[in-house]
């Protein structure tokens, strides 16, 4: 049974935040800017990344700590730098602060890259669907695919209007340099309405056994996924990155399981409600447990089970060794024993 006192050298590297200086800022559109980070040589290994991955930034605002993930819009093989691109969310705390208040030379706390929305190793064509800020990991992936493989890529890129399209000009220039390998179709919602299944089917027509990538607002991703299903595309060929947590199922009545949560010097013991994850349980106990994707990919919510057992519905972030040590993604973990104790580091 793991003890709840994790020695500092056993705390996974992914939970450590490193101060990185903002070397350069690029205003991409009135609603989005890119931050290029300076990675010291001593951290080059920790901050090596694959196209499509993200980093998590820790920000102290309004007396609280907030963790937000941002995908790299740079591609390691092409750009030689680590750049994230942040689009404003109306009313959003961190995205607007990163757009308004952060300047070149400022230092932000950043955790090492992670994520499984990366270029597959297959040799098939790539068909991508992106909307809004969802272009960031897709842009990274398609740049790497063009630079390191001979694969053909087609992208359907939806925005309210063309001038809101982040990297719109860069994408068109890239397509100009790779006329036989990259096709970019800009979809303007104001002119054509939201992307529907018919648009998805037209974009994917004749794609054969392509690999499909989808990233954008929930409604857009649902339509793209449904459109591909209509065409008989199997789930194993579709890769999706969610920026906002998927709908959580409603939690049920108490089921006799007792959960103790330790976080930031506080301890709470509560009755578990059927179906609730450990993250939901921690929140129901009044604790401000960290999270970002709530989909099992970012590891922001990881904590250690020190008594009892919990099983994860999805784990795309933790290594087998971390799981053996008792770490769980609390957004995905549900109790599997009558008593569970979980400790956030
Ligand atoms: C793996 C991953 C990668 C991501 N990559 C990027 C990226 O490359 N660029 C980028 O701009 N963002 C990205 N995000 C989203 C980012 O982490 C934040 O969620 C986003 O910036 C909003 O944070 P906020 O503090 O401004 O908003 P909050 O203050 O957290 O939220 C304000 C309101 O907006 C809603 N909301 C939150 N996020 C979004 C969203 N993305 N779209 C619409 N409504 C939202 C919330 O439900 C809430 O109602 C990514 C998220 C994940 C999980
Ligand atoms: S919040 Fe991202 S894995 Fe749990």
Automatic annotation (TrEMBL):
Cofactor(s) it depends on:
FAD
User: Which SUPFAM superfamilies does the record match to this protein?
Assistant: 2Fe-2S ferredoxin-like, Ferredoxin reductase-like, C-terminal NADP-linked domain, Riboflavin synthase domain-like
- Spell out where the chain crosses the membrane: none
Report domain 2Fe-2S ferredoxin-type positions. 257-345
**Which chain positions lie within coiled-coil regions?**
none
Tell me if Flavoprotein is a UniProt keyword of this record.
yes
Q: Which residues form the signal peptide?
A: none
Give a yes or no for keyword Oxidoreductase in this entry: yes
FAD-binding FR-type domain location: 15-120
Q: Which UniProt keywords apply?
A: 2Fe-2S, FAD, Flavoprotein, Iron, Iron-sulfur, Metal-binding, Oxidoreductase
State the name under which the record lists this protein.
2Fe-2S iron-sulfur cluster-binding protein
Upper lineage is: Bacteria, Bacillati, Actinomycetota, Actinomycetes, Streptosporangiales
């Amino acid at each position: 049974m793991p003890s709840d006192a994790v020695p500092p050298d056993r705390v996974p590297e992914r939970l450590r935040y490193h101060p990185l200086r903002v070397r350069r800022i690029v205003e991409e559109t009135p609603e989005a800017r890119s931050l290029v980070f300076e990675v010291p040589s001593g951290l080059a290994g920790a901050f090596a990344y694959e196209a499509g991955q993200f980093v998590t930034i820790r920000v102290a605002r309004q007396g609280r700590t907030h963790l937000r993930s941002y995908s790299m819009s740079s591609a390691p093989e092409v750009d030689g730098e680590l750049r994230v691109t942040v689009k404003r969310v109306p009313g959003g705390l961190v995205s607007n602060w990163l757009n308004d208040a952060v300047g070149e030379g400022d230092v932000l706390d950043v955790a090492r890259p992670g994520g499984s929305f990366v270029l597959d190793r297959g040799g098939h064509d790539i068909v991508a669907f992106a909307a809004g800020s969802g272009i960031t990991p897709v842009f990274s992936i398609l740049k790497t695919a063009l630079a390191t493989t001979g694969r053909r890529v087609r992208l359907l890129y939806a925005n309210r209007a063309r001038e809101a399209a982040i990297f719109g000009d860069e994408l068109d220039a890239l397509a100009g340099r790779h006329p036989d390998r990259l096709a970019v179709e800009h979809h303007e919602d104001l002119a054509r309405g939201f992307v529907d299944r018919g648009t998805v089917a037209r974009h994917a027509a004749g794609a054969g056994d392509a690999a499909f990538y989808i990233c954008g607002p929930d409604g857009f991703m649902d339509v793209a996924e449904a459109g591909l299903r209509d065409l008989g595309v199997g789930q194993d060929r579709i890769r999706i990155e969610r920026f906002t947590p998927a709908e959580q199922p409603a939690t049920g009545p108490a089921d006799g399981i007792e959960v103790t949560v330790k976080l930031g010097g506080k301890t709470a013991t509560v009755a578990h409600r059927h179906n609730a994850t450990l993250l939901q349980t921690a929140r129901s106990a009044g604790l401000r447990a960290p999270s970002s994707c709530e989909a099992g990919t970012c590891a922001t919510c990881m904590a250690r089970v020190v008594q009892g057992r919990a099983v994860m519905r999805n784990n795309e972030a933790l290594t087998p060794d971390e799981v053996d040590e008792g770490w769980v993604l609390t957004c995905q973990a549900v109790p599997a024993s009558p008593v569970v104790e979980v400790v956030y580091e």
